[in-house]
Write a structure and sequence with these properties.
Keywords: Membrane, Transmembrane, Transmembrane helix. This protein has helices at about 10-20, 30-50, 55-100, 105-115, 120-135, 140-150, 155-170, 175-215, 220-225, 235-260, 270-280, 285-310, 310-360, 365-370, 380-390, 400, 410-425, 430-460, 460-494. With about 500 residues, it is mainly α.
């Protein structure tokens, strides 16, 4: 999907159309108010930084350029929060209704009475009518639930829909599995709400850092006056505009990162499949030879430098650098393996949940094969090897034991043993075993998603540090100007 440029939203019509997608009516009156606020803020900053009119106008122009993105991200944030609440309530109600009624149609009808207005109610009504009145479809229930699924674009809702379709076809009592899925939903909702709170704290801290930066950078303009007043120097004025402009940019970029869907899965574009292959196909002998070749140039340079300078520090530095080059393949392999292991820990529970739901209607081998369609990148090649080995010997335990064995993850190995027990028919009651698999997977998913949330929060904290670097730059410029003005006054006074 092509990334949309923020420049296009400078046109009033484009911004209005985009905001309408999120249920917000952007009228000319609201636009005039927004631009009026920008002018007011630019004037305030201009007075505080003692800027001349052209530089105040520059701040206003920067504000106008960024304002559509700020407005759009604010409305998107509210929309995503509303959609999360709606999706969470729908999953809770739909699972409860299906447990009570046992059919997709009755569950949808009961759910529609709870969500009795708005565009989501209309989507539910279309789904109900599709089941009732469609005569030329082999699977009207699946198609009806797809109508609801397309409204949310949420993998969890799609997984629940797949479960209830399988449970309806299989018959019997699915109450235990529904309770576990409801527990999974509650744990997910709690995690998301905690992440929302964490994001709000990060956003607040970014705002505090930006405000503190701009206030600190005002001080040199007021602490020293008279002959040491630097506020009218063009470089001081330009650096103030740059400071304010970059602060605005930091806020917009941070806000964009914080503005995210809470229910849609983010596209995995990290190339973890290639990283997995890099670790799997690692040849230490071959990589060691490459490292030795890379170390030749540093060896020659440092030997030459030692002979020329005859300095022991050069020799020590050379030994450290050459040792690093000789072992860089081991360091790179270790880092890559840790990264892949962490990604497996985060993604394996999602895959296992998909398999657990497929086990309602398929055997283990078929469930694993079907799970390939939505498997995380980091697991694709390992699953291909597993499927190939199972085709060679469907009853062997070794393919299950060898699956991701090199990463020594006890949760993965335990889950694979359970899958083998199910495949060999030694697991007793299959329904109970599937419920146990889902229950264990709930704990794994909770742990994995907490790891993922930690990564997201850690990635956002860089925006808290950037303003301090910006303040350092501005203060250095002002201190240099103060020194120049002081020396000029000193020269003229003599």
């Amino acid at each position: 999907m092509k990334k949309k440029s923020g420049i296009k939203y400078l046109r009033y019509r484009n911004l209005t159309q985009e905001l309408a997608k999120y249920g917000y009516e952007y009228t000319p009156k609201k636009a005039l108010f927004a631009y009026g606020m920008i002018v007011l803020v630019a004037a305030i900053f201009g007075l505080l930084y003692k800027l001349e009119l052209p530089y105040i106008a520059a701040i206003g122009i920067i504000g106008v350029i960024f304002s559509p993105m700020v407005i759009l991200q604010t409305m998107k944030g509210r929309y995503h929060t509303t959609m999360f609440t709606l999706a969470n309530n729908y999953m809770e109600q739909f699972l409860y209704s299906f447990k009570r009624n046992g059919t997709v149609l009755n569950a949808l009808i009961e759910t529609a009475t709870i969500f009795d207005e708005g565009i989501f109610h209309e989507a539910l009504e279309r789904a109900i009518e599709h089941i009732r009145y469609t005569t030329d479809s082999e699977d009207p229930e699946r198609e009806a639930l797809d109508i609801v699924g397309e409204f949310f674009h949420c993998e969890r809702i799609d997984a629940i829909h797949s479960f209830v379709i399988g449970a309806q076809r299989r018959g019997g009592d699915a109450g235990g599995s529904i309770v576990l899925l409801a527990k999974n939903r509650a744990m997910w909702a709690e995690r998301v709400m905690n992440l929302q709170k964490e994001f709000q704290i990060v956003k607040r801290n970014i705002m505090i850092a930006l405000v503190a930066t701009m206030l600190i950078c005002i001080l040199p303009l007021y602490l020293l006056g008279g002959d040491l007043d630097i506020s009218s120097i063009p470089l001081c004025q330009i650096s103030a505009v740059v400071l304010i402009g970059i602060c605005m940019l930091i806020y917009v970029k941070a806000d964009k990162k914080l503005c995210r869907s809470w229910i849609e899965k983010e596209v995995d574009s990290t190339g973890m499949d290639k990283k997995y292959l890099q670790v799997r196909d690692y040849d230490e002998v071959k990589e060691a030879k490459s490292s030795q070749k890379m170390a030749i140039i540093p060896v020659i340079l440092f030997i030459g430098a030692f002979i020329y300078f005859k300095n022991i520090a050069v020799l020590v530095a050379g030994v450290v650098v050459v040792l690093f080059f000789l072992n860089q393949h081991k360091i790179g392999h270790s880092l890559a393996m840790k990264k892949v292991a962490r990604e497996i820990e985060k993604q394996f529970p999602n895959w296992l949940m998909e398999v657990a739901l497929l086990l309602q209607t398929d055997n283990v081998q078929m469930a694993i094969r079907k799970s390939m369609d939505s498997a995380p990148e980091v697991l694709v090649y390992a699953l291909e090897d597993l499927i190939y080995q199972l085709e060679e010997d469907p009853n062997a335990i070794e393919p299950y034991h060898r699956f991701l064995k090199e990463y020594r993850n006890p949760d993965v190995q335990s889950a694979m043993k359970m899958l083998y027990a199910l495949s060999s028919g030694n697991a007793g009651d299959v329904t109970k075993q599937v419920e146990e698999l889902i229950d264990r997977n709930n704990a794994m998913m909770d742990k994995a998603e907490k790891l993922e949330q930690e990564d997201k929060i850690a990635g956002m904290k860089v925006y808290i540090l950037l303003p301090s670097l910006l303040a350092s730059f501005k203060l250095m410029v002002d201190m240099a100007l103060l020194l120049v003005v002081f020396l000029q006054n000193l020269t003229f006074g003599m």
